[in-house]
Design a protein that fits this description.
Radius of gyration: 16 Å
Structural class: alpha+beta
Largest sheet: 6 strands, antiparallel
Number of strands: 6
Distance between the termini: 6 Å
Number of helices: 3
Low-confidence stretches: none
């Protein structure tokens, strides 16, 4: 099982008054990881997103196991769970990286739908071939 990895260092702006990372940031990091994957492995999709392609998030979740704090280094690891018709489901793991090793902090899931903009409507379309091929490497 191969993962795409995006590393992130937590900043103060991502924490709450208690000092731990605000829970919604984990979801933001899923989006960031997905964007960096497109940049690194399917850049032609970025051009299509500026035209009529839409990768609409239809479901997202995150299960939390431990807290993160400012300046923690986090590896967000993404892999393909399933790809059917116009739906892509990705799994995410959040690992705190320290000198002593790694600790699993959270797990998440995100499903997107491949759509085409048609005026003010979105119409389902098959997942673009370039994206399919890039994602299959991370199953």
């Amino acid at each position: 099982m191969r993962n795409y990895e995006y590393q992130h260092i937590v900043s103060f702006e991502e924490t709450n008054l208690v000092g731990n990372v605000y829970y919604a940031n984990h979801i933001r990091w899923q989006g960031r990881c997905r964007e960096m994957f497109l940049r690194d492995h399917a850049p032609e999709i970025l051009t299509q997103l500026c035209q009529d392609l839409a990768l609409a998030t239809v479901r997202v979740s995150c299960e939390y196991f431990s807290e993160l704090y400012a300046f923690d280094t986090v590896a967000i690891r993404m892999r393909l769970d399933s790809l059917t018709q116009n739906r892509i489901t990705m799994l995410f793991e959040y690992w705190r990286i320290t000198d002593k090793g790694e600790e699993l902090i959270a797990k998440g899931e995100q499903q997107t739908a491949s759509m085409r903009r048609d005026g003010d409507k979105l119409v389902p379309i098959p997942v673009p071939t370039e994206l399919k091929e890039a994602l299959e490497l991370y199953r």
